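haha ok so turns out i had the wrong file open the whole time. this is the CORRECT one, sorry everyone. sequence first:
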Amino acid sequence: MELIIDIIIEFIIVFIFRYPGAGIRWLISRIWNSKKKFSDFLNDAIYLNAIVALLTLTAIILTIK
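then structure:
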């Protein structure tokens, strides 16, 4: 039962942070004059997008505190 809950929680976290992570990666790539589309970043690496979003959120929270 615990395994099922962990899988569901992980799926929810990855799904929620997928779009902000892809957006952050897309904005950073625009600074370096990349012409990749947002959809390319969105479909590129789902877990990487989630990690980028979580790290950015953590940095923002730590900066505020």
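The mean pLDDT is 91.
again sry for the mixup
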